Structure of Sulfatase maturase:
Amino acid sequence: MTTTSPRPDLAALTERFLAVRARTDRLTRDLGPEDQTPQSMTEASPTKWHRAHTTWFFEEFVLGADPAYRPRDPAFRYLFNSYYEAVGERHPRAARGHVTRPGVAEVAAYRQDVEEQLVARLEDGTLDEALLDLVELGCHHEEQHQELLLMDVKHLLSGNVLQPVYVERAPDPDPAADPVPQRWTHVPGGVTHIGDDGSGFAFDNERPRHRVWLDDVEVGTRQVTNAEWVRFIDDGGYARPDLWLSDGWATLQATGWDAPGYWRRDDDHGWTTFTLSGRRPVVAAEPVCHISFFEADAFARWAGHRLPTEQEWEARAASGRELRGGLLDPDRCHPGLAAESTLGDVWEWTASAYVPYPGFETAPGAVGEYNGKFMNDQHVLRGASAITPPHHSRVTYRNFFPAGARWAFSGLRLAR
Amino acid sequence: MTTTSPRPDLAALTERFLAVRARTDRLTRDLGPEDQTPQSMTEASPTKWHRAHTTWFFEEFVLGADPAYRPRDPAFRYLFNSYYEAVGERHPRAARGHVTRPGVAEVAAYRQDVEEQLVARLEDGTLDEALLDLVELGCHHEEQHQELLLMDVKHLLSGNVLQPVYVERAPDPDPAADPVPQRWTHVPGGVTHIGDDGSGFAFDNERPRHRVWLDDVEVGTRQVTNAEWVRFIDDGGYARPDLWLSDGWATLQATGWDAPGYWRRDDDHGWTTFTLSGRRPVVAAEPVCHISFFEADAFARWAGHRLPTEQEWEARAASGRELRGGLLDPDRCHPGLAAESTLGDVWEWTASAYVPYPGFETAPGAVGEYNGKFMNDQHVLRGASAITPPHHSRVTYRNFFPAGARWAFSGLRLAR
Amino acid sequence: MTTTSPRPDLAALTERFLAVRARTDRLTRDLGPEDQTPQSMTEASPTKWHRAHTTWFFEEFVLGADPAYRPRDPAFRYLFNSYYEAVGERHPRAARGHVTRPGVAEVAAYRQDVEEQLVARLEDGTLDEALLDLVELGCHHEEQHQELLLMDVKHLLSGNVLQPVYVERAPDPDPAADPVPQRWTHVPGGVTHIGDDGSGFAFDNERPRHRVWLDDVEVGTRQVTNAEWVRFIDDGGYARPDLWLSDGWATLQATGWDAPGYWRRDDDHGWTTFTLSGRRPVVAAEPVCHISFFEADAFARWAGHRLPTEQEWEARAASGRELRGGLLDPDRCHPGLAAESTLGDVWEWTASAYVPYPGFETAPGAVGEYNGKFMNDQHVLRGASAITPPHHSRVTYRNFFPAGARWAFSGLRLAR
Amino acid sequence: MTTTSPRPDLAALTERFLAVRARTDRLTRDLGPEDQTPQSMTEASPTKWHRAHTTWFFEEFVLGADPAYRPRDPAFRYLFNSYYEAVGERHPRAARGHVTRPGVAEVAAYRQDVEEQLVARLEDGTLDEALLDLVELGCHHEEQHQELLLMDVKHLLSGNVLQPVYVERAPDPDPAADPVPQRWTHVPGGVTHIGDDGSGFAFDNERPRHRVWLDDVEVGTRQVTNAEWVRFIDDGGYARPDLWLSDGWATLQATGWDAPGYWRRDDDHGWTTFTLSGRRPVVAAEPVCHISFFEADAFARWAGHRLPTEQEWEARAASGRELRGGLLDPDRCHPGLAAESTLGDVWEWTASAYVPYPGFETAPGAVGEYNGKFMNDQHVLRGASAITPPHHSRVTYRNFFPAGARWAFSGLRLAR
């Protein structure tokens, strides 16, 4: 969790803190109190909760480290703790959408209050190195929640028959245009170093840097596209159990999956998909998005290839080739957040289970619950997506979701 | 569903319509958009939804009867239909809390629009008798939802650790004061007429008036009180399976019930209960509230008595004795709505299953789904509660809930 | 529970006891240990368990009343108690099929041991009147389980792709032959006596005899047939929500019901049904069987009629007209048990919820749990079925099942 | 799946085939038809089913390869296919315990019939290399089911209040005797070869042999004992969320785990555990058994160590040190099967998720579903257990179960 990099000067940290906080506000500006309150499934959270929880993180771990600190409202510790067992009892996750008070205005005031106090502490120089590390961690944590917040808003709005628009966007000029051709990058094998080298911020799960053996591999130069996915569908991809993992086939049968998340097909419009700009035609050349690990794995098998491991993925990305992994201008997905991601339009499922690196260690205290305790039955995604905040992507970054999750902006890249 | 009473003049109906609509607005005035959006369980609905659904009822069944009518938004038919199969597909009940748009302001505008159009139709005299009947039905329907709305708000707010206050109320001067003594009213048996006689408005389930045979019975002069319920608890009422119906005991074991809904006991405050005025001490002399049929039945068995049937209840009420069934000033529960109920502070579970009266008939068309299709595995409650709207109570009124429901304002009265 | 009839002489009671016991053995003779062990759903029980439980009933309530009695195995009290809370902890109902020991041979030995001891007690005259009542109750109890046992075996075998035969039966000569025509019996109304008059054995739920008011009614002279049910299916009976109770429609959608239980339709054979004699063509003139209350109710609505109440049913049956309610030779269903039922081929759903009669009282002690505690959310069936034991039917008999149950031999008769 | 080793002569293969088959019969000899029929949970299977399924495997994949082969009963293909989608529809897994026919005797006849035909095919030399490979695979497959069968029987019998004995065993002379001390084996790191080298039989998931990088590691010389586990319990191991993975803690709270599977504590006997020889005292020096991955992981964290990866485990085992991994005489667990396992008394959870080795390939045809499709959300166990068949263990063997499974004979060994 801690960074081993030299501390940036305090002014820069303060500026970063305020920039991150302002970005959250910008993202939620056009969501009314009604939009910010409900929770559309257990795995998602209300916008209002994301805004309060990221604030509570600074309050609990930075301001609260001072024994003289008086919390704004002791109940917030109960309401806005996500999963930190060491902090105590908390509001049940599945019922976050039932918390109507504090309302949006009170949450905004809470945000402002904690911000002002934190800036004061940054400016008066009373935060020690460990707490400054936690401020930096809190900024990255809030950036993670910025992406979650958009995923969750999309899921919430998608269930509304009105198919609401979160952000306006012009129609795509030619949804049927061909994608760029697929090519292959050769990545030579051998003993390879994987993981963060300590020169900048990284999450605990990216550490320690360690050696692995890799065989030679070829990795696709671009992500799999919607055009390719439609061929998979048309070839019976969702009807052939031989392509699927056993758990994946069971999930398909239980859910009725026959296309990526948010896709719908009707006679008048062909394939459409729900986006943060409402329901729109599926664009052939865009990377396929909102697929589960099960689907990515089945597609790769159908294509006669496979998913890369996370180590293969990192070795390729670290080699500097094809650093820009995506296909498209990210503002196609979200104009208000243009050019924000440098690594791709969609996260890429890998073949790797999410397990600790050799020598992995958690931070002491409650913040040690950050990543390690989720290293079970999840799968690693690498890269970034069009809604990942700017500068919040690294070649060592390990994102993770359960094999059946589809509400992340998740796609795939092939290996062979 | 239809009334057989002479039509009140149109001016009176218009006045009633506007009064009912205004009362709904008054009840929801102090609930913010956040409070009005979520749904705390499948059986409850968002405030916003109640406001829109009651409006849709008038739009669908009255305005929509005119083929020239253009709905405000065709999607509202999908969003705000509760259960009318004949009207078509509808938004899933369990996900009403995920509908963030239309928001509270748009719902208010929808209410106003439909109101204005309906008043215009009432004033221009173009509504025939059947449609005027439906306007009257719509007023009663909206009153039912006024009570549901308060039940649902209470359930929603109760889950918040802040225990919010919906309406302020002064502390009770003496929560431990003794209740008035229980006495018994003798109700003579014989062939008795039960059900609505057609002289005023009644729901379809109160019809037709018919004969039953009743034996002599004695019915309590007041409802069972909190003081008596505490004795039941202290005597192991929740630990003795011999007192309970089999389904009730299974429910108790699955839920962990050990006191009425919303009750909590702690060392500092003894028994408290959550009310629309926040968490407060249990008042000994008030009628016990938020109990299930299972608990009412077990209590009666423990007390050596039984629940009255709905016919016994009605025979007693119709005899004019003890018409005022409750114990207390209703504004104890809800000062803003003082003196509104004339029949009691809590609905009273009866021994009767909710089945059709002999000769029961449903209205033609979608509105025929009003009551009849719910006549399965529910239990009849009679009377009214402190949150029942004024004039919305009748000695023939049949309320109904499943045996395990506790979020209604439900209590009991004994018979022997 | 107690009988008020004069005690038959002991020899007759002993003879009856042995006859009932022998009939259970005869019914299970052709079921192997494998057939007798599993439980195909929570509501069903293994054959082996039925045989042991009916034995335990005599051991617990009759032999066990003697303080000197030493149980054959104390664990049997835990294993073979069905639901008597007052007797203590018991094996979980849903896991009865996991109890492999005692095996079938040990259960047979247990049966014989208890029988011999009970006969000895009957012969030495040491059982008082209350215990003799319990012996008689135990015989009726075992007869109830004889029917349950056959229901449960049918359900178990039906799930086997081999469609096993429990009892051989010749092919029906003409499955398409027309049923006898439907006619109507007029039953005059007025104050009517309902319930058992105490002149012979009856269960507690048939008591006390009491007065009700009935209006005039006409009741069908025969049960609804398979031919009529096929017309209901062909007319969209399973696709029209307006015909169904709300809970029924929800059940239909959740289960996919589109025909009675055990029915299947394929191109080669048309409609077939699974019977205790294997899968066979549906016989047009036989009463429809294995329908739920929801389906019976929907059919009656579709037919423009209704179900009789249990009081109407009893008034008609008691009048002596049409005492033989069924259509068919019962051995069509079960040749080994020919001519056993005098009241019908299938139980008949009524419109009545299963509630206590006015003045209902339970017996003291554990045996008081016999019927009363199940009087919640169940529906009354009247008559008897082709698998009801001989002499185990009365015009006052009240059978009951939940509204969605289909594994009983249940059909319907119309009223208007 | 295929072996690359030279084919043993046919006589030896025939002998092995008959020996494996005879061992299955020996294991089930003392289980009655009642014991062999039920299924105590979805993940377990009836003994009778194991016996038939292993037979079906030979029939389907070896005998059935001959187009002239006529199956004994076509329904067996439906009843006894476990999960091979390519073979067609099959009986639902969760309802295997409801299949009462064919009975135990018919299954025995089915076994004998297939055996005789297979031996005839082996002896007449008409099986090609691929089919001989499948005979060998079928033998290993049946050995896997021998272990599953014992696991499942134990689970089934454990739920019986009589706590039945599958195999008699003398009391342990001194259950409280101290275990041997824990020491550590140093395993040097570097580029290491992992996986089967093709010199003998191996499952597909052990292939291909490939290189990995390993750091130096120390691995415990013995498995964790019951004595150590009791200290973990006494130190609050089941009450401290900081020790647990998030999914593990959720599982603990949902299930109420507070000790290994089958353990029970009472005042009279202290800790006891259910074994194939009935309920017995927990023996301090035996390896802890019937723990989930979650518990193994929490224990390791509590002990200040960690689980080895499967590669570390294999590197240590392959080095020839401590090949005999267990602590105890295996016949302590199962006297009838003494000295059968050479690698340990319990399987050992590793830190590794069950994912394919680099270059993993499945066999063509239905048999290709053997292992690969289960490589999702499972965890690797290494070694063997006291109930693993003789000669059915290899240093490259990869067993796997979900993280919450406890009915395998699973324990752990520490690394640091």
